Each structure stands twice: as C-alpha cells, then as structure tokens.
Amino acid sequence: MSELPLPPATRTLGASDINISPIAWGMWRLAEDGRTAAEAANLVHAALDAGITLLDTADIYGFDGKSGFGEAEALLGQVLAAEPALRSRIVLATKGGILPPLPYDQSADYLRAAIEASLRRLQVEQIDLWQIHRPDILAHPQETARVLDDAVAAGKVRALGVSNFTMAQIAALDRFLGHKLVSTQPEISPLRIDCFENGELDQAMMLGLTPLAWSPLGGGRLADPKSARDLAVAAALDVVAAAHGVSRTVAAYAWLMAHPAGIVPIIGSQQAIRIAEGAAALKVRWTRTDWYAVLVAARGERLP
After folding, report:
1. Lower CB count within 10 Å: N or C terminus of the chain?
2. Spatial separation of the C-alpha atoms in residues 136 and 118, rounded to whole Å
3. 5 in a structural domain
C-alpha cells in the first residue's frame, strides 16, 4: 500500500525564516485552576523536552466572561521573566483583536494597543507570530494591514497570521499587506473536515500559509465518542493507533500532519504527560487507504 511521508522534524512558518516544530502547544486553559508560574514553567519545559517549540497563546485566554483577560499571557510572561534563556528556544505566538466581552475590533487604535499590551504581559520585546484572532467585519483590510505592517517594521512582531478567517477575508487582508501572512489558524480535526474539501487548505498551499489546527481532537469528542459518526471516526483512528502502538489522540494528530499542506496540530492539554505524548505522532506513518478511511468515516458517506 502507498505510504504517505512522515512529517519533517521542523517546518518553516510560511515564507518566513522562522523554523517551528511540526506540532504546537496551545495555552487556552493555562491560567485556569489557579496555576502558578512554577507549574506553568513545568508545562513549558514539558513541551520543549518533547521537541515542541511553537507555543501559541492569546490575549483573551483566561477570560471567563467577566474577568481574567490577558491572564494566560501574563502567566507565560512570568515564566519567561524567571528563565530568560527560554525565550530563544521558543517560537512565541499570540493573538488579539477580540474586545471582551464580545465585539471584534481591528480598528487601528485597538490593534496598536493590543499588540503593545501583549508585549507587556509577555515581558518580551518581540512576538514571533502575531495573529488576528477573529475577523472584524467593520474593519477595512487596508487599515488593518497598515497597522500590522507597522508592527513588523518596528520590530515588535516578526511574522503575521490570522485565525478563524474565511478564504475571502484571508485574500483581502493579504492583498494589502507588505509583510504577507505566514499562517492561518482554523479549527481542524478528524471530526471537523470542512477545510479538506472547501478550498481552505488549497488556498493555504497556494499562498504558502502554514495551517495551525486548533481543537485537533474535536473538543475532546474523540476521547469519548458518543454519536455514530464520532464512534466510526474513532474506530478508523484506532486501527492505525493499534498498529503503531500509540493512543487514538496521537493517531489523530498524525492524521492531520499527513496532509500535504503541513498542518500543525495545536495540543490543547495542560498536562505534561499529554503534551509529551503528542511528539509520538511524528513517527506514525499513514497509508492512503487508512487515511481515507478516517475521512470517509467523518463524511458519513463514501467518496464520489
């Protein structure tokens, strides 16, 4: 059977000169449960020890609907301030553009303030990848692009990305940018497969964008499948997981990484053992038959 290639040990982030690990760790829940800076540092080290260098956070992580805005960034900032040597080992990614409790804001004034605030909370002079978290329909992409280009020119940001943007929104923003986008961050998992057939990943390959997949385990549904569809996808993943002696979680990461767009799954767990486990996905080799079996289970119908 035709085998798909294993992911490389490192990837280039879009057309930038930034090398990243082929799997990332996300800090959506880093500031929960009263986690201390020492505990957060242990998780950062767990990621680095597993070969994961891309760490992804956002200014809204930690916000519970009333308070906590910026807490995940601030906690990571404490870790970096306590161990300055960590900074050079990490590709630091964050996001902004959501003004709690809900409105999206990519106005020039807000974006400038958001980038400055993230730099302060993270206690760094430069962010490697700054991403617009969700699109603001009321912002003209030319105005947004001007602010982002200025941030790169000023050395505050190395590279630019977007999250949850449609293909048209990506194309519009990229059209006005001097420093072109290097990444897009949509939701992708074996249970959310829209991007495989709606053109999102094709556009990413065409524009040279690295897809960063949030919620690659389907929001936890792969761990505890209930519906007939979820159970079918889990069973298809388990075939490969059993053959390689890995968990279903690892098989799911590897399934995404087998796609030619170079999908980088973002591990969402805040447990050191789960973060470290993800690295095993780099050794799981898929055949076309097994890969498409997962896709067919997710589609709920045969391929045409």
Report:
1. C
2. 19
3. no
Structural tokens at position 289: 């038959």
CATH number at residue 96: 3.20.20.100
Contact call for residues 250 and 280 (beta carbons, < 8 A): yes
- Determine the Cα–Cα distance for residues 33 and 158; give it in Å rounded to an integer: 32
Encoded tokens for 152 = 């790169």
* Interatomic CA distance for residues 253 and 302, integer angstroms: 23
* Beta-carbon contacts of residue 297 (< 8 Å; ≥ 6 apart): 229, 232, 233, 235, 236
Structural domain including 131 reads 11-299
Angle at 254 between CA 196 and CA 247, to 5 degrees: 130
pTM of the full structure:
0.97
Tracing tokens 């290639």 back to the chain, one arrives at 5
Q: 141: which 2 tokens?
A: 């992409």
* pLDDT 10s digits, 71-100: 999 999 999 999 999 999 999 999 999 999
Write the CB contacts of 249 (distance below 8 Å, at least 6 apart in sequence).
217, 222, 223, 274, 277, 278
User: 177-180 contacts: CB < 8 A, separation 24 or more?
Assistant: 177/145, 177/148, 177/149, 178/145, 178/149, 179/148, 179/149, 179/152, 179/153, 180/14, 180/15, 180/207, 180/208
User: 27-55: per-residue pLDDT in tens?
Assistant: 999 998 889 999 999 999 999 999 999 99
Say if 259 falls within a structural domain.
yes
Point out the residues that are catalytic.
Answer: 61
pLDDT score at 1? 66
Rounded to a whole number of angstroms, the CA Rg of the chain reads 19
In whole angstroms, give the CA distance from residue 50 to residue 44.
Answer: 10
Dist CA 54 CA 91 (whole Å): 5
Report, as ranges of residue numbers, the positions in the chain whose pLDDT lies below 50: none
The burial class, CB within 10 Å (0-12 / 13-18 / 19+), for 43 is buried
